[in-house]
Amino acid sequence: MLKAGVLGAGHLGKIHLRLLNQSDKYELAGFYDPNQKNAQKVSKEFGYKSFASVDELIDAVDVVDIVTPTLSHFECAKKALEKGKHIFIEKPIANTVEEAEEIIALAEQYGVKGQVGHVERFNPAFTAVKDKISNPMFIETHRLAEFNPRGTDVPVVLDLMIHDIDIILSLVQSPVKHINASGVSVISNSPDIANARIEFENGCVANLTASRISLKNMRKSRFFQKDAYISVDFLEKQVEVVKMKDAPKKFDEFALILQNAEGLKKQIYFENPKILANNAILDELETFASAITEHTTPIVTLTQGKEALKVAMQIIASF
What we know:
Elements: E1 2-7, H1 11-22, E2 26-32, H2 36-46, H3 54-59, E3 63-66, H4 73-82, E4 86-90, H5 97-110, E5 114-117, H6 124-129, E6 138-144, H7 156-171, E7 176-184, E8 193-200, E9 205-211, E10 218-225, E11 228-233, E12 238-246, E13 256-259, E14 265-271, H8 280-293, H9 302-317
Parallel strand pairs: 1-2, 1-3, 3-4, 4-5, 6-9
Antiparallel strand pairs: 6-10, 7-8, 8-9, 10-11, 11-12, 12-14, 13-14
């Protein structure tokens, strides 16, 4: 069993603490939070040990779970890696691509593993259909959220859109060719609404929209590929898979048949993949533990976290 400690006991940090505490793969050592008032409150309410410093916590564990504001990700990761500790680090991996590259170099230098918290990779709706998404050529994503002051210290691209950037990069096995984007600041000092068009070298185009001042929440992605349309609702955890195949010469009167201008007939049919309920955050933490103990590659590597950040930064730069 791996000893784990959490840096940061805010909203998400408390969720990580609870899940690590109930996991069979970890022994929770405790947490560190620089806000002493909050640290005392969390320790008193939940009974978790509060460490006096970052270094004291790092020395006591095998795995450091970094759930601090993005600005401090690099410093926390650097301290943990230099002491030979594995790191789980919330998205985005760092504040800059250069910081992310140094984190990767340190992990290699000290022979430890790292995983980035791109939690949508573990969403049950996505895991139910990801193997059916093959060479998509057009992708459309909408990630809309009601306003919440938490997270507005960074542009909406790093706050919300980066989830969809990571999902797209995990599916499109082609380098980015060109990015066009626009962003608008409405209530924050950084953009609250953003739209980006990413063109890949293989011809795939992805159109991403993110907003954190919406009147309703939405997290939907649509994937179009040859002979198939796949829709993933990350919020409602639902999927829609519509496929086409050449229509048989004789078909049922209730079959859905389309005929194009050339006379080619296609039969439309639907698939209903089974969606297995899960706790995505627990899954990402436990698969990381398995990667450490079984000496395998984490599902979301530090390099993949860096690539998502790199594209996010290119989007922000093109505003």
